[in-house]
C-alpha cells in the first residue's frame, strides 16, 4: 500500500506565540504565504515486524536527531499512542520525504515532514481521522518539539493564510487574503515568492526565550490588527518588515537583501524564523543573485 502527500512550504511574515497546556490549542496568530515548493512524502506500508524506515531525498537516516527524522518519528509515536489497537509490530512503514526548500530557514519544512507522515499513514491504515484531525497530529508533533507553531495550519490553508486564533487545523481559526488570485491574468500568470537564504536559525531557540516572546507578542498583536483593517498583500509585506525590525529579529545581512528586493517587488521581509529574505513579486526576476523562485500555492496540503 502506498500514499503520496504534498505539503507546500509556509513562510511566516509575523507571529504571536500563544502557549496553552493542550498542544492542539497551543500555537500562534499571524500571517504568511504558502509556496508551490515544499515536502512530497511517499508512505509505504506492508507486512513486517514493526520496522520503520525514513529517507529524505533518497538518503537513509539512522539517527533520530535529524530534524526530519525527529518530527517524523514524533508524529508516528503520537499516532501509535492514539491508536494502540493497531498492530504496529506486524507492519513495516517506509516514509520517503522529497524536499526542495531549505531546512531550518523559515520555510516550515518540519511541518511538511509531519503532515506527510500523519496524513499518509492515517490514509493507508484507515485510521478514524478526518483530514484536519490527521493534520492536528502533525501540529501536535511540531509544538511539542518546538520546531514550529503555525506552519501546519498555514500549509493546510494555502495562499496567504491569516491565523486568527492559535491551534491545529480543526481547533484554531484561520482565514486568507483574497487578492492573491487576481494576478493570474497578468503577464506571468500569477505571483512569485522570491527568496534568498543565508543560513539557519533554530526555531526552538527563539520560542524558548521568554524575553523575546514578550517582545514578539507585543509587536505582533498590532500587526494582525493592522492587516485585518487592510487585508492586502502589499500591506502584509510592509507589516512583516515592520515586525522584523521592531522585534530586532532581522540581521544586517538579511536587511541588505531586503532593501534590494523591496524596491523591485511588492514588498520584502525576513522569513520567520530563518536567515532568509523573501519577497512577493509580479515577475520571477531579481537583481539578487542565486535566489529561489516559487509560485503561490493556493490549494494547500493535499493527497496526490
UniProtKB/TrEMBL annotation:
GO terms for biological process: coenzyme A biosynthetic process. It holds the Pfam family GHMP_kinases_N. It comes from the Archaea. It catalyses: (R)-pantoate + ATP = (R)-4-phosphopantoate + ADP + H(+). Residues 73-159 form the GHMP kinase N-terminal domain. GO terms for molecular function: ATP binding; kinase activity. Keywords: ATP-binding, Coenzyme A biosynthesis, Kinase, Nucleotide-binding, Transferase. PANTHER family: PANTOATE KINASE, PANTOATE KINASE-RELATED. This is Pantoate kinase. It comes from Methanobacterium subterraneum. The lineage of its organism: Archaea, Methanobacteriati, Methanobacteriota, Methanomada group, Methanobacteria.
